[in-house]
Amino acid sequence: MGCGHAGYRLKEGLRAYLSDHGHAVVDVGTDSEEMVDYPDFCAAAARAVVDGRADRGIVLGGSGQGEQLAANKVKGARAALCNDLHLADLSRRHNDANVLAMGGRIVAVQLAREILQLWID
């Protein structure tokens, strides 16, 4: 998991959800809502997937759009912006996405959990 400052709260909620459901989480930051260069964290999450340190990645920001773009700059990453259930389903079934992007200012925590669970399943 990697995020910018705008995705920090959503990251914390999803990280806890994943841990509670038995998933090991590699958290590459950021560690607060203090302003940061989000591409660094999103690229780090994508590299963890491409390097085999993680099965899948999650990048979070305000909208998820920039985070998806940053992750997709890593060769081998296939990041999909999924701010709803339908896109999450399509991204896995038809695009074999290995990085999920969502926006903390777009998606409420409960919906984000549902999107994440569908995407993992």
Give an account of the 3D structure.
It is a single chain. By secondary structure, the chain is α/β, with parallel strands linked by helices. 45% of the residues lie in helices and 12% in strands. The protein has helices at 8-20, 38-50, 65-72, 85-93, 109-120; strands at 2-3, 57-61, 79-81, 99-103. The protein has a four-stranded parallel sheet, with helices on both faces. Strand 3, helix 4 (85-93) and strand 4 form a beta-alpha-beta unit. It is globular, with a radius of gyration of 12 Å.
Features:
alpha/beta, 5 helices, 4 strands, 121 residues, globular
Please give the order of strands in the largest beta sheet. Answer: 1-2-4-3
Report the total helices. 5
- Strand content bin: 5-15%
Low-confidence stretches: none
Q: Helicity level, as a percent range? A: 40-55%
N/C terminus separation:
17 Å
**Largest sheet report:** 4 strands, parallel
Mean pLDDT: 97
Query: What's the total number of strands?
Result: 4
Q: State the order of secondary-structure elements, H for helix, E for strand.
A: EHHEHEHEH
